[in-house]
Every structure is written in C-alpha cells, then in structure tokens.
Amino acid sequence: SRPYALKVIYGNHEESVRRQIRREIEILRDVDHPNVVKCHEMYDHNGEIQVLLEFMDGGSLEGILISHEANLSDLARQVLSGLNYLHRRHIVHRDIKPSNLLINSKKVVKIADFGVSRILDQTMDPCNSSVGTIAYMSPERINTDLNHGLYDGYAGDIWSLGVSILEFYLGRFPFAVGRQGDWASLMCAICMSQPPEAPPTASNEFRHFISCCLQRDPARRWSAAQLLQHPFILRGQPHQVAQNLHQLL
C-alpha cells in the first residue's frame, strides 16, 4: 500500500454550493501532470468534503533559501511546467505560494491545492481570505480599481510565482512589509509601491525573469509558456535540486 494525503473542506455549505464543489473536484480528478499533485478521489462525509490527494513526503518549500541560481532555475522550470499545464486546461490556481509548492523523495517539485483554493475562492466570502494568502496576490486582485476592474487569473498566477521565486532567492518575503503584516500594510506595499526586483548581485537573466513576472500591468507579464522559454529557465539542467532541499527529506 502507499500513503495518501487527505484534504478536508469544512463548513456548512448550501446544497447548491456543495454540488458546485463536487463538480469542480470531478474536473480536477482528470488533471494529470508530473508537476501537479494528483487528486485521486472525493468523498462527501458527514457534511465535510474530503479530497484524497497524492502524498508528498518531503513537505512544502516554505521558508527554504535557494540562492544558487542553477537550482532555482530548475525549481522554477518544474513549477512553470505544472502551471502551464493547468493554464492550458483553463484552470487558474489563485494561490501560488511557497507553502503550496511541495517536494517528494524523488526530488520532484509539484503544485498543490490548485483546485481546492479555486473552489474556496468561488464559494466563500473573499473577505475571509487569510493575510498569508493576500501577501502573494497581484495588485489588481487586491485592488479591483486597478486594471479597470478586470482580473486575469492566469496573469495573477504569474505574479504569485514571481513573488515566490524571489522569496526563495532572498530567503525572505520580498516586500518591505513582512508577509505577516496587517492587511492595510500589505495592500499599500503591493498595490502602491514599485514591484520588488532581484538584487544587483543576481545575474541579468534572473533579474529579467523576475521582472517578466512582476509587471504591475498584468498584460505585460509573460505567460507560463513564454517563461518556460526564458534564458533563465533554459540554462537550468533537469532535476537539479539545491542541497537545502535535500535536507527536507
């Protein structure tokens, strides 16, 4: 036998919402990519929605420093590969962040919570979003007055990816305000200040890659498919993983 992970969605949802959740999960069961955590089954048990998922024995990459660019390039390539697959299937993640990037004993990095986050975002009050999640949201998602009130979920995922990759490189949340700051401080930092940049000590390729992700104008952000062809990604060798990732396992 092999271990699985169980994701439980609590809450007294109306029946129409429960049907929507079940429909969404049925779609997500068809998702199959080596860089996306597999959704195996769904159960509706005693008022709880339980989702049976692939188990990632290395845990999440939250709090990991990856300052070696070759290793960071490979990690970014794996995440982009999974993200590009989801986007081609018209699935928006909505919650890309280090804690939703998992690694297994084979040193494969996979995107997690790609479906559950989207379902909750559609069926629950957005005001209930956690500050930790808001920290990785794009400016136009936080402030709907930006971009004429239009929100491109695919471009929003790219912003979140850029913030996450830069955080791995720096070893800290890349905005001046802390990731656990209050909502108002985070909103001001993300929506009103200039997007964070990779430091001058980084390579030109990495600096440009981050810039392509963290454009304030969502129309100027590169797509996942375009970023997979970026020089920073193409220079990485497959399945290189930093020594500090090995220490997770």
Automatic annotation (TrEMBL):
Key word Ribonucleoprotein present: no
Gene Ontology biological process terms, A to Z: response to other organism; response to stress
Single GO MF descriptor: MAP kinase kinase activity
PROSITE patterns: PROTEIN_KINASE_DOM, PROTEIN_KINASE_ST
Highest taxon listed in the record's lineage: Eukaryota
UniProt enzyme class: transferase
Pfam families linked: Pkinase
E.C. number: 2.7.12.2
CDD domains hit by this protein: PKc_MAPKK_plant_like
Catalytic activity, as annotated: L-seryl-[protein] + ATP = O-phospho-L-seryl-[protein] + ADP + H(+); L-threonyl-[protein] + ATP = O-phospho-L-threonyl-[protein] + ADP + H(+); L-tyrosyl-[protein] + ATP = O-phospho-L-tyrosyl-[protein] + ADP + H(+)
GO cellular component, one term: cytoplasm
Keywords: ATP-binding, Kinase, Nucleotide-binding, Phosphoprotein, Serine/threonine-protein kinase, Transferase
Protein kinase domain residues: 1-233
Protein family membership: Belongs to the protein kinase superfamily. STE Ser/Thr protein kinase family. MAP kinase kinase subfamily.
Protein name: mitogen-activated protein kinase kinase
